[in-house]
Each structure stands twice: as structure tokens, then as C-alpha cells.
Amino acid sequence: MTFDLQPYLSGALVDVRPLREEDFDDLYAVASDPLIWEQHPARDRHRRDEFTRFFREAIGSRGALAVIDREDSRLIGSSRYHGYDAERDEIEIGWTFLARSHWGGAYNSELKRLMILHAFRFVGAVVFLVGPENVRSQRAVERIGGVLSGTRTQENGAESLLYRIDSHTFAPS
Prior knowledge:
By secondary structure, the protein is α+β, with helices and mostly antiparallel strands. The protein has one domain (9-166): Gcn5-related N-acetyltransferase (GNAT) (Aminopeptidase), CATH 3.40.630. The chain is built from four helices and eight strands, in the order ββααβββαβαββ. It has an eight-stranded mixed beta sheet with strand order 1-2-3-4-5-6-8-7, with helices on both faces. The two termini are 27 Å apart. 31% of the residues are buried.
């Protein structure tokens, strides 16, 4: 079975669907908040030129997802599947950001739970690569069951903390 990198997923709080070109303006409205990126290695992603580059990469990845608030149908963020590795039996979930109005756990937890459960239809593990200074993301991954399993060098050469969730230990809440 081929891994579906851009599924349609639904929860109580969010709907998840493939990211589309026409989402640029709405997603940039979220991403233009500098506080979203303050602990991220790409701290200037709130600038339009930097976000445009990020958005183009997301669309080109064919694994990018839009996150929609079910209450008002507003686009509130994005996430991505990346790096499917059949040999390691894993896929990465990353590039996630949400509007600050949706911080605090419930929205991110539901988004990740939906994405993880979908991934476990195809792989035995999900990994998250998090910057060493990005404490906020580290805590968020730990809250959903991510276990620090070492480090991994990313494609861009950056060293990241490697968090892992295995299908046989994941306890969806």
C-alpha cells in the first residue's frame, strides 16, 4: 500500500486536508506573527519573502497539509509528512505551526493524533526532528508521547533532536 501523504482527516476540533496554492494568503496571515517563529531555527519565516520560500517548498513536497478550525472553517496552520523511509519503517511529521490563538495543546494534540494514526496505517514509527533551542516544540512532542531517541542530521545539515513514537506504544487519547 502506498503512503498517502496528503489525506483528508477530521477530528472534533480540526479538519486536515492537502495544502493548496490558493491557501497562501490565509496561511501567511497566520505565519506573519513573529512570535510563532521565535524559538524556531528559521526565525525570519514571518517575513513574506521567507514565508513564500517555505510555502513553495511545502507545495512541492506533496506532503503538506492545511489545518482548518472546524468551528469557523478558518485556516489556522499547517503541517507536513516527510521522509518516508520503508527501510526504517518510519515517516517524519514536521513543519507544524498553528496560529497563537490555537496554542495550548488541544488543537496541536488533535492534529498530531490524527496524523500519527493515519501514519500508523503505513509505518511502525513516526519521528519528529526538533531544533535544540525549540523548547516549546520539544514539550509539545513530549506531551503527545514522543520519546527523545538521540539526534539526526537533517537534509540542510542542521543537527536536530530526534523524537520517536512507535505504533505499539502509542496511546491515543
